[in-house]
Amino acid sequence: MKKIVTSLAVALAATSAFAGGLLTTTSQNAHYLRFFSQDADINLTSLYANPAGQAFLNKGWHISASAMTAMQSRDIQTTFPLYSFNAGNPNATHKFEGDAFAPVIPSFDVAYVQDKWSVSAHFGVVAGGGTCEFENGLGSLEAVASNMLMQGALGMGIPANMFSYKLDSYLKGKQNYFGFQIGGTYKVLDNLSAYAGIRGTYATCGYEGGLYNLQILNPMTQSYVPASADIVLDNSQTAFSVTPILGIHYRPTKQLELAAKYEFRTKVNLKNSTTPESAAAVALLPQYADGAKVRNDIPALLTMGAQYRPIENLKIAASWHYYFDKSATKYGNKQDLIDGNTMEFLAGVEWKFCKWVAASASWQNTIYDLSDAWMSDMDFTMTNHSLGLGVRIYPCKLLNIDLGYMHTFYQDREVTTAATQMKNLYSRTSDVVGIGLNFAF
Fold first, then answer.
1. 150 phi and psi, to 5 degrees?
2. Report field, pTM of the whole predicted structure over 0.85
3. Beta strands at 301-311 and 293-295: parallel, antiparallel or unpaired
């Protein structure tokens, strides 16, 4: 019973639905979708990635608004011996499909630039993102339930060869970390600037679902009878946290840009709000009691980038990201199951082939180092490659428009747990589209 409730409580909890690390979301706007390597870019829409670069924008006001739509599937093919006794699907291998969808992911940027200094602000979803729904639950939940039902049947004197069960299962989770960042940039030299800022993050998460209509076959009557009460969880979580941010930008020549940024670890204590209907779950797991707190830190992040213009209308960029995942505390010290910190390598090219349009393409490789023990159907991700494409349109001097698309190719991963006789094959897909309006005056 406790394992079932534990699975419900941590289900869907923590991987980012979009580009970035295990929790961090770096895909902040439509410009990113078409040009990933923004870490040395001079652009208002690169404010999140390279805040120190804002000092080199033209003097005056710069304002941007962007909206993205993201679609992701998280599919698990689970093999477990007792699944064969499921009357609805008598097969040792079951497929569990989860769909994550975020119809509108907003972001806003604003900067005011003077000769030596500038001030800026950014708003966006900086971690997590969206809602994920498993219409038929998760394999780990059914595995624990089927084992519990079999033990109950054997205790009632039902022979193993006559055991059969039915159940309904459902899970839905949402996780959004909304960040508001403000800061200032100062030109230390004509070709060197420094940034200091702070981000306030409001986290809102929620999990609902459970196991319903648990029944076993009565061989005497050849009918299914209730075997357990429904096991449910209805929980929401909120938290507010603060992240200091430092950045630097260096322009050794007119053609070359170099930059770096460091975001400190964000300590996150999610406060529970749990309904009375979840009382049985709370009795077994008091950490999910109404008002209790659950730790889920956002890791520190170091980024470095370079950008070069061989000719005026062509820019080539490369970046590196390093997420300090092993130092970000998670509930139950799950960070100890991470073998190594996450790294990303990014590259992009943009060509303004006419006065009105610039086209771009970019590539990103996110490399996770996660142990088999860390992976579960409740929280999984895999090393992946992303491709971004798009255009920037210049209809007039004061306005440009970004149109971007990103697709992520995940590497399937198979994990076998000998102790539970369970095998999981994990797969994911992800697509994001976006539009952004950028003004300067």
1. -65, -45
2. yes
3. unpaired
